[in-house]
Amino acid sequence: MGTFKIEGGIKLKGEITPQGAKNEALQILCAVLLTPEKVTISNIPDIIDVNKLITLLGNLGVKIQKIGSNAYTFQADDVNLKYLESIDFKDEGRALRGSIMIVGPLLARFGKGYIPKPGGDKIGRRRLDTHFEGFINLGAKFRYNKEDYFYGVEAEKLKGAYMLLDEASVTGTANIVMAAVLAEGKTTIYNAACEPYLQQLCKMLNAMGAKITGIGSNLLEIEGVESLGGCEHRILPDMIEIGSWIGLAAMTQSEITIKDVSWENLGVIPNTFRKLGITLEKKGDDIYIPAHVDGYEIKTDIDGSILTIADAPWPGFTPDLLSIVLVVATQAKGEVLIHQKMFESRLFFVDKLIDMGAKIILCDPHRATIIGHNFKSQLKATTMSSPDIRAGISLLIAALSAKGTSTIQNIEQIDRGYEKIDERLRAIGANIVRV
């Protein structure tokens, strides 16, 4: 188990470039199974979860070639479907939440798709019903082995259908879209997710020959086609990492420029941080954050009541950044209520922040009230363990702002989502060592 040792309280300075979006990469990589032709993908983040999926695709028989830094070609012209019945597949599929999205492409192209119950972050229940109900609507037969926790769907030919999703699941929408592009006839998906990741997937599929309209809305219409071809695709910068670096700059009172952020795909993220009093300047496609030497003050609502920041499906505020907002608020001037609506276990890392001296009241599993220190009292260094990717990066930011030397264990959780994070932080002045 790896460990970070962090000397906190150091001002950082410089430029940092966000990696490619992890959540987009997991969708895009699964889509290569839809065609026997070569697909070229660039800006792929070099992180554990993505590399696990690339390995899984290779074991499925996809020909993979690295052609440059963070760039690969994929060609699924000789897929080994027998691998889906192997013990190795059951082990690899369980180890990665994103593996669920191979089911739609396999079902669409080969008439069958299987997956063991996938793992992922322990952030609460993450149901798969939306995925499989969508496949059933397209004409697939569903089966589930309770003893092995193994799911399967099969169909001779998928047929387009109208469906109203029970939740705007990002991975569920992606899976259904990838199945529907090769289905016979028209598919309409209402209450579809519309995150930039999903928009990117739809644009890539259209570049491969799919016919998808309504991209960016919650109503997608898909005219099925006989086959798809190859394409080239570049992954967006990771909006979660961008939000993380905004929080890092504020908490360490550092002057940082975040490069090439794709402003048009950030939604409400910049304004949400501005509500915490953080100054963000748009310079071309970069975000410039000046050193907040005098701190930052949380804004109240128009009527003067305490600010509430809650997560919601896109275009609302992403749940992946609520933990960052929570940490940033611990040194703000003022108070804020954080309401985590979408997952029931994502606030359970706050006890570690309380141990560091943060003023936080955990109201219930979904809500926490933070009273900011206004930098009049530094957080104290401590030893802690990373429970999941997003809580892990939040604790890392807290440690970088704290007084003394902190130790973070179980850093593999952070490595699952952030590429070479210790090297990149050292490049802007952080004192962080991987042990």
Automatic annotation (TrEMBL):
Q: What is its main location?
A: cytoplasm
Residues annotated as binding phosphoenolpyruvate are: 22-23
Listed EC numbers? 2.5.1.7
Q: Output the superkingdom of the source species.
A: Bacteria
User: What are the alphabetically sorted keywords of the record?
Assistant: Cell cycle, Cell division, Cell shape, Cell wall biogenesis/degradation, Cytoplasm, Peptidoglycan synthesis, Transferase
Q: Where on this chain does UDP-N-acetyl-alpha-D-glucosamine bind?
A: 97, 320, 342
Identify the InterPro entries for this entry.
Enolpyruvate_Tfrase_dom (IPR001986), Enolpyruvate_Tfrase_sf (IPR036968), MurA_subfamily (IPR050068), RNA3'P_cycl/enolpyr_Trfase_a/b (IPR013792), UDP_GlcNAc_COvinyl_MurA (IPR005750)
List the molecular function annotations (GO) for this entry. Answer: UDP-N-acetylglucosamine 1-carboxyvinyltransferase activity
Give the subcellular location: Cytoplasm
* Name of the protein in question: UDP-N-acetylglucosamine 1-carboxyvinyltransferase
Record-annotated Enolpyruvate transferase domain positions: 7-425
Does Transit peptide count among this protein's keywords?
no
Active-site residues (renumbered): 121 (proton donor)
Question: Pathway it acts in?
Answer: Cell wall biogenesis; peptidoglycan biosynthesis
Native source species = Flavobacterium cerinum
Organism placement in taxonomy = Bacteria, Pseudomonadati, Bacteroidota, Flavobacteriia, Flavobacteriales
User: Per its database record, what is this protein's job?
Assistant: Cell wall formation. Adds enolpyruvyl to UDP-N-acetylglucosamine.
Task: Enumerate the catalysed reactions.
Answer: phosphoenolpyruvate + UDP-N-acetyl-alpha-D-glucosamine = UDP-N-acetyl-3-O-(1-carboxyvinyl)-alpha-D-glucosamine + phosphate
Which family is it part of?
A: Belongs to the EPSP synthase family. MurA subfamily.
In its keyword annotation, does this UniProt entry include Transferase? Answer: yes
**Which major enzyme category is it?**
transferase
- What is one Pfam family matched by this protein? EPSP_synthase
Q: Which NCBIfam families match?
A: murA, PRK09369.1
